[in-house]
Amino acid sequence: AYDAGPLVPDGTGLAGLRAAAAGCRGCPLYRDATQTVFGSGDASARVVLVGEQPGDQEDRQGKPFVGPAGRVLMRALDEAGIDPALTCITNAVKHFKFEWDARGKRRIHKAPSLHEVAACKPWLTAELRLIDPEVVIALGATAGKALLGGSFRVTRERGTLLTLPLEGDSGPPLVATIHPSAVLRADDRETAYQGLLADLRVAAKALR
Ligand code: URA
Fold first, then answer.
1. Ligand 1 neighbourhood includes 89 CB (under 6 angstroms)
2. Which of 57, 92, 118, 155 falls between 20 and 30 A from 37, CA-CA?
3. How far apart are alpha carbons 135 and 151 in whole angstroms?
4. Would you say which domain of life the source belongs to (predicted)?
5. Could you give the CA distance from residue 66 to residue 63 in angstroms, rounded to a whole number?
6. Cα-to-centroid distance, 170 and ligand 1 (Å)
7. Which domains does the chain possess?
8. 52 in ligand 1 pocket by Cβ < 6 Å?
9. CA of residue 108 to ligand 1 center, whole Å
């Protein structure tokens, strides 16, 4: 099975993890992507936000949530009273998965498989262990499944205080919500956005 686990160094900080992840060959996604997009922020972050995978812009720039979905997320964080300086933003999968459109011009996002999510999980676990945040926010179904297991359903569990299971001990509070790109795709964007915001406010209350 694909597994980044053997590539994750022990006893390093986030910079060491990031450097090791840059050369990850834990699954085949590195072949077509431009680069690994590791989490932003530093180990003092009090909130970790987990998305799905980098998109086209993130793949080019090497930073998470710098495209359209990121703009929605930043606005919602601000409105929910979560200071971006307190956050680390990362993804369940750290390489962009895509296929070319028929004309070979645009790279169309493809959802990562469960195997790819599982292969990448050791990076996410290592980030969460190092940062030890006060609250974790799962953005969308892929992040929710990566963190809570395959039976997670975002429509059922969003906006409630859950607990992140971490091997060996029980982890910090976790709040799941929709992915910010679902706001951009929604027929009623305003209602979808208000839902995202309400869920982020639940997470904001979990901050000490
Ligand atoms: N969507 C994600 O899930 N992650 C990103 O980094 C960008 C868009």
1. no
2. 155
3. 21
4. Bacteria
5. 6
6. 27
7. 5-205 (3.40.470.10)
8. yes
9. 13
- Residue 166 CA, ligand 1 centroid: distance in Å: 23
Residue 53 near ligand 1, beta carbon < 6 Å: yes
Amino acid letter for position 88: C
CB 3 within 8 Å of CB 25: no
Q: How would you classify residue 80: left for phi > 0, otherwise alpha for psi between -120 and 50, otherwise beta? A: alpha
Ligand 1 neighbourhood includes 180 CB (under 6 angstroms):
no
* Chain segment 94-125, per-residue pLDDT in tens: 999 999 999 999 999 999 999 999 999 999 99
With bands split at pLDDT 50, 70 and 90, how would you rate the model's confidence at 208?
A: confident
Query: What is the residue-wise DSSP string for 101-139?
Result: -TTS--EEE-PPPHHHHHHHHHHHHHHHHHH--SEEEEE
